[in-house]
Fold each of these.
Amino acid sequence: MDDVVEPGAAGPVGGPPTGVTAAGDASQFVMFHVQEEKFAVPLAEVKEIIRVPNVVRVPMSPPALEGLANLRGTVLPVISLRGVFHFPVALHDDATRVVVLDQGRPIGLIVDRVANVATVEADRIESAATIQGTVATDLLSGMIKAEDERSMVMILDAGRVVRHEFAAIAGRDDVARAIAAAPERRHDAGAVEPDEDQLVSFEVAGQEYAFPIGQVQEIVQLPDRIIKVPQAPAHVIGVITLRDRLLPLVGLREMFGLPSASLGETNKVVVVSFGGFSVGVVMDSVKEVLRVSRALVEPMPALLARDYKLDDVSAICRLEDGKRLVSILSAERMFNVDELRKVVEDGGGKIMADETVEVAKSAGADDEEEQFVVFRLMDEEYGVPIDTVQEILRVPDQLTRVPKTPEFVEGVINLRGVVLPVVDQRRRFGLAGAERNDRQRIMVFTIRGVRTGFIVDSVSEVMRIPARFIGATPDLSDEQKRLIRRVANLEARKRMILLLEVTQLLNVQELGALELAA
């Protein structure tokens, strides 16, 4: 069996999904093994057969779902037939394959081994009611008797398998309806108060800096490719491409005369915009999204700015009773736009020669974008709309436990005089727990008036995703259908990001319990 059997090739590929491919009184089937059993599906339902792809695990999905895979730009749900029939779990090997079926949309079934394509006479096909075997007969449409009548092949009803595993369970939509009908509990606690500022803070050489959040367009990973520009200022690292635009890349260490350090995976690029111009600023790490009272922000004294050449710093924010100082930067004061425009012109020619054609091919005529904060849980990436994120905080050393709260509630913290309930998002999704570490963050949302923090493994970047890469997530379960309605399929980057509906992170009962905790 080839790695991939394409439509039209000599192999298990048929015409329209009408059930079986008939040859007179005979029908054609693709046959395969799972555990000790042998199954068949009508040839006409099979689109192709592939090796087991890399998959993205989906929380709160049926146990038989292996995950979501990228099939040439299409999101492919991959189902383990061992899981469907409750057979023992087995590791995939060189013989394991995914049979891709057409069920209105592609569905992949993991099988232990593909046997062959066979033409079966009508008199060898019997009703599934005659089967006395080890599998659920309600997922079968019939059986094929072997010519020696000593064995049988079970005909799988793929449509029933899909409905059995993924159809929303009837009668369990009450929570969704209750959320939609519930009145607002209080005013939007997440709105920025008139006397507050929002800042994005980051660290460079052990010092903490921040930009006003209104200047920060996005936060991205340091790209692999950076074009060096001859005779550029020392603080200009080079020029990069960010989708279809050229961006000068500046090192804050070099700009501020701080000790140099090699760039690596932990570095982030904060894209700041001012006066219609954008610059990528390389940081050692991004720390938090802060909401600070303006009473804690002091303008940089003019004398200090002049004598110590600190005019790039517009203000100082004093936190934790003055023990933590955050320097608020001014993009307008920091960068010479004319100088950076020349850098882009000098360094952009080579990039444009290599990439303009590809950009033109990938860009849509009406390509809208959405902006998401991307975070990780275990090995998977999730995204939430940036306008739903109120703050991003470090996880404190201790949280106060509250009795009689849901098991996934880690505790509460004091956030500027307000009690903030904190949810362990791993536990909420039924994932394995993790030891506390410096990369973890608390993402703060306001859900129907209740401000709540969710602990995630790390916050990786702020990303703009073109609308053409965003599609509906397959309906895998009723809870998943409410919470993870969309997925960003970034095929060129080999990334698939599950996009969460923030308003559905907690149901009505859970919100009530958190209100009591607060």
Amino acid sequence: MIPRRNPGNFFYMLILNLLNKYWPLLAAAFLAILQGYHYGIGDLATYVPFVWHHIDPQYFSGDLLTRTLGDHPVYIWHLVAFLARLMDIQTVFFVLFIAQVLLLAMAYRYFFRTFFSTGDPGWIVMLLILVTPINAAAMGRYGLNPYLYFHPGALAQAALLFGYCLLDRDRWLAGSAVLGAIFLFHPFTALYGALLLGFRILIDFRHQPLSLLLMSMALFLLVSAPSWGPFLYHKIGAGEIAFDKALWLELVRGRMKFSFFISQWIPDRFIHLLLASAGILAYHRHPAFRRLLPVLLTVATALLVMALGDLFSIKFILQLQLARNSFLLFPVIAGLVIHHIMHMPPGQLRSWRALLLLVPLILMLQTPVGDKTNPARWLLLSMALLGTIWIVWQAMPHWRRFYVGLIWALALVMCGTLVVNRLTETGRFVDETATSPWEQLQIFCERELPVDAVVMTPIHREGFRSLSKRSIFGSFKDGAPHNYSNKTIFEWWERMQALGVTLPFRRDRFPGLYRENAEKVARQNGIRYVVYERGSQSPDESWEGILYENEGFRIVDLDALNPGKEKDADQVDE
């Protein structure tokens, strides 16, 4: 008699085996999650309203922001809206955030094991380094938690790595399909995917069947067609719109200078890129160099085109933000160095090559010491330095274990200090969204104001729409999507000018300008509700139109007259 298998025991053993095999990946992902999580601010301040509008068109129907939707041929927010119909939207974004972190961890592990080694713990070092950055080197955000919230750009990074690894493993059709699919949710990253595919085809042209390469290109174009097809149709079919290019350049130079204009970069961005490029070229004899050469060529081509767009002020090229994925150089150089370290004989430790032990950390961390440097971070850097000296001096046979342990300590201390700081400042372990008073104000507005209400909010504050589900007059953050819309960019700018904003942008003046002009502009535009920050931005304390207030904000109803002022007016008439 054959004994029956216990399903519970089977799944228990399966989970145990998965944890035993992938615990470093899960641990690195957990550390990345502990770096922080946001909802409704940053880029999500504009993405969440798109989702609500897809769920129910009555939300933000009169908001200037939703008029830019036709200029963004992506489909990710349709999917998020579908999921948000099934469960709470904040739960949806948090689940997607967790999935995003895990996918990035899996993608970087797959990348290291594809191009370097499957038998050493180098991929663990790679993942741990990717949870330590404070600021990403050069252009673009990268790491296992680059945005601190769900972002299609982070999802696209994982897809980019997976797609290119599939090409390297001779799975051309699958790789081309993955790279083409990136266009459906993040075209900026997809452009790098197109370049990677093109350069890989050029390099492997003589080693692959022509039919396979042609099929790969055709599949890439077919999968991405739902994005570039409507975009071309929109551009070709759009009528002539009056467009002041000189003014547009001034606006985007003030708002997006590092992303749009290579001439606006600070020197350290060039230094980091040159160091990474030189480091990669120094490994030209490495077995993986030829297979990774398309990455170097892709970044160089993108930056060259970006420089030409800057030099000749070509609007379309500037809008592509071609430097945002140049971070691809850093995982490559880090992988090369880590692989070299893991295979270095102990006898070579007492040499200049031992300095390579710190290279990944130096390259991946742009600002390990900053204005908020605390004793824990100084201890962290001291540990790294002393640990390296100990490894080099002792040349011990088991030094690799010590090195991997040092990187674990680095990641634990770095993420631990972030958690402690967050608990001290906000009382929250993971979620550090907007301040509580800001959230409470939004919840009140969602509960009490009409769905079609338009609210005047401080222009320097972001994310009001996320929980309130109410339209606003505009904010400085809104300028990002308007940069891509010929229909709305100048209307947005007129609204900012009405509130006193001038060129060049002086963000430190925004609170004062809003305080001076908010009520007047609201009345001129028929806006009934105005939000003020408590203290310097509050109206007269005797104002009777206060609908709600907390320790941080108050919202007033301009239709409610001050009784004292009304009485004075009646006396004058008598």
